[in-house]
Design goal:
- The protein is mostly helical and about 400 residues long.
- It has one domain: Hydantoin permease (Orthogonal Bundle).
- The chain contains 19 helices and no strands.
- It has helices at about 1-20, 25-30, 35-60, 60-65, 70-80, 80-110, 120-135, 140-165, 170-175, 180-190, 200-205, 210-235, 250-255, 260-265, 270-305, 310-330, 335-360, 365-390, 400-405.
- α17 packs antiparallel against α18 (about 365-390).
- The termini are far apart.
Length: about 400
């Protein structure tokens, strides 16, 4: 009996890790490049604590986890009032549409870095057709494919780290500036995002609190270690700025490129390039399928409620055509999309709102109620920083033109 329970909790732990890996880890070193390794590790540890705590808060909400048809907008409408239903709907649309745009742009950018003879729009459309075709088969296909895809992700990730380690330089590691940490916080949120699968985890583990905590804390801990390992090899191997060669992190930041692109140029090894491509394809495709399935379910609920129809073709069009159009019109917004997803959508649903739940239901003046306020303040700060950057009111990201042309 004990062995079976342990295996079940372990399997869900791996599901958590599989959902965390994706565009976030590829963007993380690029967005945090100006901050440097040590501040980035500190920020990663902080976000690990905060996002793990909010995940545990969600896992305690029986009205959300026991009902297979429960959805976040209705949950927050019941818990916090009507206005929060619409806040949740908008934030969820930012998350689900935004991540699909990021995956489409990220994959097409990586493939085009291989000097493909096919144009970028064609690459985007081909990848879109394949991954949405698989997603259309729903959860059964995902459940069959996911264990194999997660295994491939871990193998290729380990290979990438192993190949880059010899190029890690102490000089690169020792360069840091704490002032640039705020600009990377939205991507850190996305790097620790898996909260949409928490209800499924709770039901799979029969609402066993001990096993759920083991799965969540163990999964996020593994993800945290992988994020720090990736930060170490990328920030250690690549210089912040190299104006002569442009094989550096600032150039990648300015071009909205995933971290694997400048690493491939640095190593100039076909083996690394293709392993990086496999990792990115598998990681982003797994996440695309999970979020695409969630988006179709979300859109189906909206069309049923407000349009009085669950027409499959209409749901598919509303789900996938908008991100495809955005990806085709703005093909170089990989990092921009991730920042919006993490800094706005996820910040609200998986940061601020769980804080309000804790604040509302904890004994007045208790330590737990205080932690709810800490969550609200921390995630609201990230939201204000991201909105300030998008509106041009804050300028805390690295100045690409300065680093590219005026530093040596």
């Amino acid at each position: 009996m004990t062995q079976e329970k342990s295996a079940s909790a372990m399997s869900m732990m791996f599901v958590v890790v599989g959902n965390m890996l994706g565009a976030g880890i590829l963007a993380l070193p690029v967005n945090l490049c100006a901050a440097g390794f040590y501040p980035s590790v500190a920020a990663t540890l902080l976000m690990w604590v905060l996002m793990t705590y909010t995940a545990l808060i969600y896992s305690e909400q029986k009205s959300l986890t026991t009902n297979e048809h429960a959805d976040l907008p209705t949950f927050f409408q019941q818990e916090l009032g009507d206005a929060w239903k619409w806040v949740t709907i908008i934030a969820n649309m930012i998350i689900l549409y935004g991540v699909l745009v990021a995956y489409l742009c990220g994959i097409s950018t990586i493939i085009m870095s291989l000097q493909s003879a096919v144009s970028k729009p064609i690459v985007t459309i081909i990848y879109f057709a394949i991954v949405t075709g698989i997603t259309a088969f729903g959860m059964k296909m995902m459940n069959k494919c996911t264990p194999y895809m997660v295994t491939i992700m871990w193998i290729t990730f380990g290979a990438l780290v192993f190949m880059v380690v010899p190029d890690v330089s102490a000089t690169n590691i020792d360069n840091f500036d704490w002032a640039y940490i705020p600009s990377g916080l939205p991507v850190l949120l996305m790097a620790f995002h898996f909260h949409n699968i928490i209800p499924s985890i709770c039901r799979t583990l029969n609402h066993d609190r001990k096993k759920i905590r083991t799965a969540i804390i163990g999964g996020t801990t593994i993800g945290m270690v992988m994020n720090i390992a990736w930060l170490l090899v990328v920030l250690g191997a690549l210089p912040l700025s190299a104006p002569d060669t442009h094989i550096d992190l600032i150039t990648a930041f300015g071009r909205n490129d995933p971290a694997t692109i400048p690493l491939g140029k640095l190593l100039q090894t076909p083996v690394f390039t293709y392993i990086a491509l496999i990792f990115a394809l598998v990681a982003m495709s797994t996440a695309f399928m999970a979020n695409g399935t969630a988006l179709m379910s979300f859109i189906r609920d909206l069309t049923a409620t407000y349009l009085g129809t669950k027409n499959k073709q209409l749901v598919w069009l509303f789900s996938f055509i908008p991100p495809l159009l955005v990806g085709l019109i703005y093909p170089d917004i990989f990092l921009v999309a991730i920042n919006l997803v993490g800094g706005v959508g996820e910040c609200i649903i998986f940061g601020i709102l769980p804080g309000f739940i804790v604040w509302k239901y904890s004994p007045k003046g208790s330590f737990r109620q205080m932690t709810g306020m800490i969550l609200i303040v921390c995630f609201a700060s990230v939201l204000f920083i991201e909105m300030g950057q998008e509106l041009g009111l804050l300028h805390i990201s690295p100045d690409v033109e300065y680093w590219t042309h005026y530093t040596k």
